[in-house]
Every structure is written in structure tokens, then in C-alpha cells.
Amino acid sequence: MVDIEESADRVAVIGTGAIGGAVVRRLRAAGRDVTVWNRRSSRTAEMVELGAVPAASLGEATSASALILLTVTDHAAVRQCLDSVGEDLSGRTVVAMCTGTPGDARSTATRVAGLGGQYLDAGLQASPDMIGAGAATILYSGSPTAFEQHRATLGLVGAARFVGETPDAAAVWDLALFGVWYDAQLGLLRALDVVREAGIDVVEFSDTATSQLGHVVAGVPATVSELRGATYPPGPANLVEHHTVLRQILELRAGLRLGDGGLPEVVARIEALIAAGRHGEGLTATIG
Ligand SMILES: NC(=O)c1ccc[n+]([C@@H]2O[C@H](COP(=O)([O-])OP(=O)(O)OC[C@H]3O[C@@H](n4cnc5c(N)ncnc54)[C@H](OP(=O)(O)O)[C@@H]3O)[C@@H](O)[C@H]2O)c1
């Protein structure tokens, strides 16, 4: 094990796939000392040309560095890597830079703590291209001390945002944000599917669909304010009116290859609120 003082300025990047490769390029462009290890060693050749030092083993890479970035497929791969390190990681910070569930983040945090290291979970709101262009945002959670200690280095990879001290906070943010994109994109796909089936020109339709998506974006601050204030004004429609339209959309979506988007649960929730006398409230009441 290399002394922690000697390894203080060196970063280990474990996994030089699409994300790991982009991270190494960014760190090397900023002149940082980087050690790389990849399961298939042939994949580190380009990184070595950029000045990264190849480690002969995973243990050699983690031993050489105070900051260890695990840019591998998933948390199962992260934990497999940690199992094969199997040595004391005191004074070192391990960052899991992969998409995972809150449960994944908690399990990996426990494993890192068992090895004596500090843990940061990272949610990558970024593609390799965005990392390369310096346009990435990366969400971190876990040890605030580790985040402050390595903030400057993490900031080289992308805008570094600390979102909470529980190890799973970044995973909740990350998956919730991906969920926003999927819900909007799948809503658009369902709409395009039904209009095309009805013989309507999808290009003409898409202009209005774009405006409709804009209404969602414009309504974000008001929705959050309603939630925080626990008041749910009807806005453009109350729950009775929403109920009518949602049932009509359900009929329109019957038999769609992408299904109905979970609308029956929403309709049932609105019916329960109406039965409780809350018919005059708006849609935010469904989560209030
Ligand atoms: N690419 C994107 O646009 C993007 C965007 C946001 C988030 N992410 C997330 O970032 C993470 C990495 O994605 P990626 O695109 O970089 O994937 P990738 O290009 O497929 O690279 C995966 C890396 O993980 C390594 N690996 C897999 N299993 C391993 C194991 N058991 N032990 C050791 N190494 C292992 C691979 O090594 P080998 O080369 O030996 O196979 C490779 O270096 C994923 O969680 C992904 O969801 C990616």
C-alpha cells in the first residue's frame, strides 16, 4: 500500500469504458495524475498515450490513489471490484460513478465503510460527450468531508453538486430525473402513436405537442410552491374535470403497444379524493 500522503494528488479511474474514458481524458487535460485499471487491459492503451499510468492490478490502482473513481457498469461490478481489492482503504475516498438504485448505493456504502474508506455515490446526469465538453452535471451524496476534500478534482469532471449526506440521495435524484425524462418522452411516443394510427400528420401534430411540453416546464415553480404550501388550487381544471379528461385519454390509449402509462392508478386516486370531498382541488393534490 502506497502511503496516503504520496497518493494524495493521484486519481484512480477503475473502468475505462465510455464514461471512464471521458473522465480520464478530462482529468489528463487538466494535468492531473491518473492511474487507470480496466478488466480488459487492452482498453487502457489510449489512456496511457494520454499520460495515465496503467496499474498492474486493481489493488495497485487503489493503493496508488487517494481518490478512487469506479466508472463501471453497475453496483454489482463496483462491489466485485471492491471484493478483489480486499485491503484497508483508510484515508481513501471511493466514488461509485454508475447508475443504480438507492439500495445499491446503501450496499456499496456499507462495503466501503467495511474497508475503512469514505464513500460518495455519484449520479451521472451526463453522457461521455458532455463530460468531454465540460457540460456535465454530476450529483454526489455520502460523506460531506470527502466531497469537500475532492471537490476541485470532481469539479474537473463536471459541475459537482452535493445533494445529501445519506449515501442513497444521489441515486434518488438521478433516477427521479431519469423518470421525468422517460415519462415525458413516453407520453410523447404514445401521443405520436395514436395520432399516426388515426391518419393525422405527425409533423403538424408535433408543433402543438412541443407547446404542450412547454406548459409542463413553465408550470414547475407553481407545482413545487403548491406542494410546499400544501395548498392545491385547481388552476386550469379541478379534479372532477381532470377525471373526465383522463378517462377519455384512457379510452384513446386502449390497446396501445406502450400501454396506458399507468392512468388507471391516477384515475383511482382522483376518485378517492373526490369521494373525500376534495373535488375542487387541482392535480397536485394527487400527491398532497
Ligand atoms: N454512457 C452514457 O451515456 C451514460 C450516461 C449516464 C450514466 N451512465 C452510467 O455510467 C456507468 C458506466 O457506463 P459506460 O457507458 O461507461 O459503460 P461501458 O462503456 O459499457 O463501460 C463499462 C465498464 O465497466 C467495466 N466492467 C463491467 N463489469 C465489470 C466487472 N465485473 N469488473 C470490473 N470491470 C467491469 C468494463 O470493463 P471491460 O472493458 O473489461 O468490459 C468497462 O470498463 C453505467 O452505470 C451507466 O448506466 C452512462
Tell me the strand order in the biggest sheet. 3-2-1-4-5-6-7-8
Helix and strand string, N-terminal first? EHEHEHEHEHEHEHEHHHHH
SS content category: alpha/beta
CATH superfamily of the largest domain: NAD(P)-binding Rossmann-like Domain
Computed Rg: 24 Å
Biggest sheet descriptor: 8 strands, mixed
* Discrete helix count: 12
Helix content: 40-55%
Strand content: 5-15%
Number of extended strands: 8
CATH topology of the largest domain: Rossmann fold
CATH class of the largest domain, anyone?
A: Alpha Beta
Distance between the termini: 53 Å
Bound small-molecule species: NADP nicotinamide-adenine-dinucleotide phosphate
Please tell me the overall pLDDT: 95
Q: Could you walk me through the main structural features you see in this protein, from its secondary elements to its overall organization?
A:
This protein has 288 residues and is an alpha/beta fold. The protein folds into two domains: 10-164, Rossmann fold, CATH 3.40.50.720; 173-287, Orthogonal Bundle (N-(1-d-carboxylethyl)-l-norvaline Dehydrogenase, domain 2). The protein has twelve helices and eight strands. It has an eight-stranded mixed sheet with strand order 3-2-1-4-5-6-7-8, with helices on both faces. Strand 2 (33-37), helix 2 (45-49) and strand 3 form a beta-alpha-beta unit. Helix 4 (75-85) runs parallel beside helix 5 and helix 8 packs antiparallel against helix 9. The radius of gyration is 24 Å and the shape is elongated. The model has no long low-confidence stretch (mean pLDDT 95). It binds NADP nicotinamide-adenine-dinucleotide phosphate.
